Amino acid sequence: MSPKAAGLAVKYGYTNVKVFSGGDPAWAKAEQPFVSSAKFVKDDHILLLDLRTADKFAAGHIPRALNLPAAKLDNEYQEANFPEYKGTPIVFYSDNMADTDKALELMRDYGFTKWTYFHGGVAKWQKLGNPVEIGPKPAPAKLTYVRKLASHEISIPDFIKSLTNPDVVILDARTAAEFAAGKFKGAINIPSETMEKSFNEVPKDKPVYIHCGTGMRAEMAYDILKGKGYTNVKLLKANVTFTGDKYKITD
Amino acid sequence: MRISTRIAASLVTLLAVSMMAGCSKTRPQVKSETPVPQTIPAEVQKKDPNKVRGNINAVVGKNSTISVNITDKDMMVFKFNNETVFKNASSYKDLHAGEKVDVVFKAVGSENIATMLSKVLAELPKGASAITTDELKTLLSKSPEAGKYLLFDTRPPSRFNQATILNSLSLPITEMEKLDKEGKISPLLPNDKNTLLVFWCGGIT
User: Fold this and answer.
1) N or C: which terminus of chain A carries fewer CB neighbours within 10 A?
2) Cβ-proximal residues to A90 (8 Å cutoff; 6+ apart), any chain
């Protein structure tokens, strides 16, 4: 909550405090890129692509990176050569911004939603004390990305299966208004904002699967329940929409 | 068209995601000069099916229509007319794609007529001012050292790690508030109280 943060800064006596209230949505709308941290590049399940030439790549690259020279983009590599899953977190790096911009613009055009770059590339990576690998590792003709479900996540097929299972509780973490406009049959509604107060309504003796519209509020609700000692809860990280009593669940 | 549709689609995703990014609640509506016929208690408003909130997809003055992507739902199209009350906007010309609006409407035949269009604004605390996207872009053309500024991403660390704005430091609001309660100030804040500090988060929900 940036206005709140700014309020604290004013309280501390700072005289030149500004708020970029549009936040990351406004930044995305202005087609400005986002950067990922070294920690994310190191630890997360991502598709990491090095846009430099093969010889530069072979001389030293970030571990796990595949080499996709920028010259091949929009050339040998078209949309069909990228993973089908548009939520694939793709991180690029290079030694120049022009190549990075080109790659990011293509990802935007292809409809990917999680494309970022690692600012500073290999030089920054090493400066932060991280090791590099040497040798070639060209990207395959078809890039793939396998989604991994965390242990507290439920897959879309398993979630759908559970909708007809009376022993499973479906917990809708959206607002009451959204719930009223469309819901899963038999689901209970505890909005994520009120979970802290109302968690007692969640059964402890049955499997509970939480969903919302995107998976984000479900995750918030999950975190609260986990903090309260619940061990029977899983969440659905997927987009859920309702048209009347029909539902649609997508990655 | 294909590309722009996709941009819109990914934007919607980002907006939906940002809703949960530990970000701002919106402020109570600013009273405009135009008197509002009646005040509806907030509780009733929430349940009123004829009030929706969403992000503007497009405003077409020629046809007096505005299309709005309703959060977690589909797009809706509204007609506006001479009787439509605009709040936080003098006319439809102040409403732009991507901005958030509250729409109160009535169904007339097959059309939804907007009786009120209210732009949702972020509340800024006293002593702080707004910075626009373009101003931020200009600021970022210099390093924090050269431009004498600090940029803070107040979203949770996981969001910061995944995707942040260049030169941002991670200062989650939860961390700031925790320190504040203990009477402490984050060591990331500079000694020079005149340093430009810019805070951002996941936008208005």
Assistant:
1) C
2) A46, A47, A49, A82, A107, A112, A114, A115, A116
